[in-house]
Amino acid sequence: MKIPNVEKTILDNGLTIVTENIQSLRSVALGLVVGAGSGDELQGEEGLTHFIEHMAFKGTPKRSAFQIAKELDAVGGKLNAYTSKEYTVYYSVVLDRHINIASDVLTDIFLNPSLKEEDIQMEKGVILEEINMYEDAPDDLIHDLFMQTILHAHPIGKSTLGTKKSVSGFSRESFLKYRDRLYKPNNVIVSAAGDVKHLDVIKMAESVFGQFNGKKEAVKSFIPQIKSETKLQNKKTEQVHLCLGTKGVSQMEDDRYVLSILDTILGGSMSSWLFQEVREKRGLAYSIYSTAQPFRDFGVFYVYAGTEKKNVDQVIFLILEQFKKMKKEGISSEELSRAKEHLKGGLVLGLESSSARMSYIAKSEFFHKRAISVEEIFENIDKISQKDIISLAEKIFDEEYLNLVVLGDVESVQGIKV
């Protein structure tokens, strides 16, 4: 099922263009999505993807860092970027009449970062402090520790920020080699949404990316073998932070919709089982929630909680009890209906801006090579049954896949059994 106003073109050099014309909006969001995430880093490159994203804003042969910021500020626009495990996004949001300014600046920082050695050395200090800040935030750090534990040596399990050792070792040559390997036209999506014409974006892309050549070579991916493991990391903290989880589902599996329902009822909302049982009824945690992390080839699903040292075993027990309940009883018809409407409402409300639409069609193209309509997602959600929930719960809540990571002033925890 197609989205009516979404168009797609692939240029001769392999660059993909996707646009959604939304004439009711006055804004335009323009994004450049490159299939280069922290999961694509080789040994010794940990953190390089994120570092390269930072360096894009440090200047080009045409513009200084100040000029880059000033040009978008002068028209009330936004210019930003972010790094994920599987891709990096550079984007700008402006009024429709300023689309040419946005495209000129955005493509310049994407294609032509100066990567001056002095700027690299300066930014190293910034990123090393970012790592320090992250390590001082246990409620953030625990998520990285969990991903490293459950995915073992898989690159996606490594921190997007990298390590102090890896970041300190980067040189200009490191950046050039990485970009030469991954910043290729067949690995880039130009995405635009708002009051913008597809033909205009094609003309811009042909003009700017015409000499952008080369091809990203296919790399054989591997799926990590998830097996049960418990890890305790002692750290002097006021709270003990923990993640307890298992294998999930990938972006490519239909079960991702089933997991979204399960996630919503288990710990994805304020009315969820975990929020009610652990926080509202017993006051054992301020923050507790579940989260699904679907990647292209596999997925991870886990629960996070922060609690007092004396309550750790009880919180773990309560989480495991909810896993058991989901396997044995599933969810009620009322919970199923509520979760479906929760997901639909969240999806629609989350797509009401040009930047959200741009990001949505780009990621849909990145993972599925097509724009998946909201109506198609609704159909997939509507056909989920109570039996589907139990079936998935039985697959993922198996003792052989459960991983527990605990961070804080704690020496031991109870064993895992579900």
Automatic annotation (TrEMBL):
Residue ranges the record marks as coiled coil: none
A single GO BP: proteolysis
PROSITE patterns per UniProt: INSULINASE
Gene3D superfamilies assigned to the protein according to its UniProt record, in alphabetical order: Metalloenzyme, LuxS/M16 peptidase-like
GO molecular function terms noted in the UniProt entry: metal ion binding; metalloendopeptidase activity
Domain Peptidase M16 N-terminal residues, every copy: 17-164
One Pfam family here: Peptidase_M16_C
Domain Peptidase M16 C-terminal: 170-342
Transmembrane segments: none
Family according to the record: Belongs to the peptidase M16 family.
Name of this protein: Zinc protease
Provenance organism: candidate division WOR-1 bacterium RIFOXYB2_FULL_37_13
